[in-house]
User: Fold this.
Amino acid sequence: MTQTRRTFLKTGTALMGAGAFLGATGGPALAATRLTGVSYLPPSYRALSFGSAGFVERLNASDAVDVDYYDSGKLLKADEQLAALRAGTIDFMFHTTSYITRSVPILGITGLPGVIEALYENPDRLRKGSPLFDLINEELAREDLYMVSMMGNVLEPEYLWSSAGAPIRSIADVKGKKVRVVSFEGTKVVEGFGGAAVRLPSSELYLGLQRGTVDAAVANISTIIGRSLQEQLHHVYRLPITGFGIGLFVTPQRWEKMGDEVRAAFETAADWFDANGAKEANEVIYRDDYWPAIEAAGIEVTDPTGEDLAALDAAAEEVRAAWIADVGEETGHRAIALATGQAG
Assistant:
């Protein structure tokens, strides 16, 4: 049954209260195999939706599962997904980590400056079953969450993209600029460099750049291409400010209540997502399609100097210290050591 966002928000809680939702009680087998999942990302984000679409296709191919899946925020907006998952009104969600690091601090490891490149260049460190993956899940359990996969790795780092009227070609150019940024970690870096951080949904970024609401954006190349922002931008400064991955999340309770066949089908699809999600984006779509499109659009590309990379490292120390204070000394230091290859 296809639901609308309006009817879902009206009836979801009532269904849970009636014990009729997704096999929460010992209901009919058909009800127990229906899994509702969401993502706020639209198909135009081809690199980001490749993995989630492939997962859903494979899960739905199983005889054990009937998937009711909504992308593009059709059922729930980005800011509504986490609460709905915890409430049990959806079964699984795909979510970019950058949007929820304030609610789920351990996921900040995927966006820490000075750490993000080490993860990006070493995919095995976030694979299912890796020490870092398991540590993240230990902490997520305290948040009533279980991450089935992080698409196998983080995505290419987020860089500074700027307009013709306010070009950013160095850290010094950030001062006084209005910069769209989503993650807490990226916000701290931008503000430390003298910029004014503006939280703006990607759906509003095109007009934001066009009207001068923002001068620049910290963004992954998927956001640029997915929202046609190359039409409003003229420069990219490839300083790795922050980053993110896309997690596949359920709750521990829902995971345990899945039947053996359903869980096996979910794991099989998640294994494919883990092996192919980030790999396809980073090694194929970005390299072969997106960066050539940026070049064809005439966007000037500037790589950071050694001096600016050193300045980013210095700024990163403060951001990492704040994050460690959030997640706890032992957990924070352990996660960073695993992410940077200093522990196994």
